[in-house]
Specification:
The chain has about 425 residues and is of the alpha/beta class. The protein is built from 13 helices and 16 strands. The structure holds iron/sulfur cluster (SF4).
Length: about 425
């Protein structure tokens, strides 16, 4: 309400903010109620589904929803179901609403893990000639990427892995391979992901993931685990009462009727997979179990591979901005001892993301998180190197590992955001 000098109250128009206006300061985007996000919300998904019902089938959008394993685990804790049970019932719920396909971002994460492993070996081998080849810093967390681009710009960006996150790997697969298999234009597909945080909405709206030839984004809309709960509540259904539906097998990390996860942390297991692969490929050492050493706090852990008293590999998992700031300061002083760091913006990582479901009144945050972690780890672990469908896609779609097409479709780039006197500007 504006009160001018004449004392007459004048009602102001409601302000609208789209993600393109956002400078990724994180402050607003992580507090859901305070922001009107018009393009990326469950209302927008509902609108597309309603519109599909009003047009002929040839004009309809093919609606694809890709669900993250962290969101599955969060919903599983809320409804006291297993993660795979959530997947089957959520598939039933979404298909009843008019969604055509429901995929699993564990599948696309296999590509993120394999590409990260390969990128690490490349960087390790050029570390003597390229002082910024190591430590390689993980790239799957958009909260961390926003912070790095805005706060430490050109200094930090060369250290960040160029491998795409599982969300954007899926974006590339859905709007590329899947569109070609279905014989439709990427624009005809409406691709939604279900994620544990709001920052994934920012990631999806980056110009790097916009297909200008088709005027479409690889991921059109991101909704959080909390928004899925809202959709269920709006339909007045409990996930426990929804009929199960068979899982879509084309892009799901699946064995029979059970979904599979990856070993390691609930944030994707990047440290685990890269460490084991590097130990084997660079030093011929097979690692069964990783031994984590807790440093200053539980969100800062180290793993070290030593031989004859010499450190061969030193990796760390660094979660939460307090630990991230310390890591960046160490890097700036040339005192970082690490070869790889799994960096995640949220304390406790993605299972504790800002878009996950909140604890019930008789539960603490800690109790809920423990439950979500158990449910996430309740799925059996799969090994990306052994997934024959992943290997097949590398051959048939990406024209083999390490080829130009694979680099283009499986990697990305970052942009320093420079401060100037009139505000912020992005160096694209
Ligand atoms: S750590 Fe948090 S902000 Fe980063 S990707 Fe995971 S849930 Fe999102």
């Amino acid at each position: 309400m504006l009160v001018p000098q004449d004392g007459q109250r004048e009602k102001l128009e409601k302000a609208k903010i789209t993600l393109n206006d956002c400078l990724a300061c994180s402050g607003c985007i992580t507090s859901a109620e305070s922001v009107l996000i018009t393009q990326q919300s469950h209302e927008e998904l509902n609108r597309v589904l309603r519109q599909n019902k009003q047009v002929s089938s040839s004009e309809q959008k093919v609606v694809v929803v890709s669900v993250s394993p962290q969101s599955r685990a969060s919903l599983a804790a809320h409804y006291a179901l297993s993660s795979s049970e959530v997947a089957r019932r959520l598939t039933g719920f979404l298909k009843n609403l008019g969604v055509h396909h429901v995929f699993d971002t564990s599948f696309s994460r296999s590509f993120s893990l394999l590409e990260s492993q390969r990128e690490f070996l490349e960087r390790f081998r050029r570390r003597e000639v390229d002082k910024k080849a190591l430590p390689m810093l993980a790239s799957a967390c958009p909260g961390w990427i926003c912070y790095a681009e805005k706060t430490h710009g050109d200094f930090i960006l060369p250290y960040i892995s160029t491998t795409r996150s599982p969300q954007q790997m899926m974006g590339s697969l859905v709007k590329g391979y899947f569109a070609s298999q279905k014989g439709v234009s990427p624009q005809q597909i409406y691709h939604v992901t279900v994620m544990p945080c709001y920052d994934k909405k920012l990631e999806a709206s980056r110009p790097d993931f916009y297909l200008s030839d088709y005027e479409t984004r690889e991921v059109d809309c991101v909704i959080t685990s909390g928004e899925v709960l809202k959709m269920l509540e709006e339909e007045k259904v409990s996930l426990r009462d929804v009929e199960v539906a068979p899982l879509d097998t084309i892009f799901s990390n699946i064995c029979g009727e059970e979904l599979l996860r990856h070993a390691g942390s609930g944030s994707g297991g990047y440290l685990h997979h890269i460490y084991k692969h590097a130990a084997q490929q660079l030093f011929g050492i097979e690692i069964d179990e990783l031994t984590y050493k807790t440093m200053k706090n539980k969100d800062f852990q180290e793993v070290t591979l030593e031989k004859d008293g010499q450190v061969l590999l030193r990796f760390a998992a660094v979660y939460g901005f307090r630990n991230i700031q310390n890591l960046v300061q160490k890097l700036k002083r040339g005192k970082s001892p690490y070869h790889f760091v799994e960096v995640m913006a949220c304390p406790s990582g993605c299972l504790n993301g800002g878009g996950q479901l909140k604890p019930s009144s008789d539960q603490t945050n800690k109790e809920l998180l423990q439950q979500v972690e158990e449910l996430y780890h309740g799925e059996c672990a799969s090994v990306p190197e052994q997934d024959s469908r992943v290997a097949e896609l590398y051959q048939s779609w990406f024209e083999s590992v390490g080829q130009e097409k694979a680099r283009q479709l499986l990697h990305t780039q970052y942009h320093a955001i420079e401060k100037n006197t009139s505000g912020l500007s992005i160096k694209w």
